[in-house]
């Protein structure tokens, strides 16, 4: 169940004219990337999380989406929306600090090796 609404995504991207299926694809990808980074499943509210726990789909450390997690997802969404190709030719590039990682890292579990 998505925790970033289409309305919030469009507001963050300053009302893009793309169609809903494409926007939903980007929202889903941003949320999935965030959850993969923190190694946790994230739910829009406690009711959705409890339903996932009851059905056995929540994993070991489920949580309700916080403002920081939503903000990180919006940053990832903005990156996916602005950079639609793997390679950009003819531009000067500078790596931006990963604000999404800074927002997500406090919630990360199972760091691994």
From TrEMBL:
User: What's one Pfam family here?
Assistant: Phage_connect_1
Transmembrane ranges, per UniProt, are none
Q: Which InterPro entries match?
A: Phage_gp6-like_head-tail, Phage_HK97_gp6-like
What's the name of the protein? Phage gp6-like head-tail connector protein
The organism is Pseudomonas parafulva
User: What is the taxonomic lineage of the source species?
Assistant: Bacteria, Pseudomonadati, Pseudomonadota, Gammaproteobacteria, Pseudomonadales
């Amino acid at each position: 169940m998505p925790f970033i609404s289409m309305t919030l995504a469009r507001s963050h991207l300053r009302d893009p004219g793309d169609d809903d299926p494409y926007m939903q694809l980007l929202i889903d990808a941003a949320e999935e990337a965030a959850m993969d980074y923190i190694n946790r499943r994230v739910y829009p509210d406690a009711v959705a999380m409890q339903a996932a726990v009851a059905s056995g789909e929540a994993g070991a450390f489920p949580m309700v989406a916080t403002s920081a997690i939503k903000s990180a997802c919006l940053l990832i969404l903005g990156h996916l929306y602005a950079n639609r190709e793997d390679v950009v030719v003819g531009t000067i590039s500078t790596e931006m600090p990963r604000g999404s990682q800074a927002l997500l890292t406090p919630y990360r579990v199972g760091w691994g090796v």
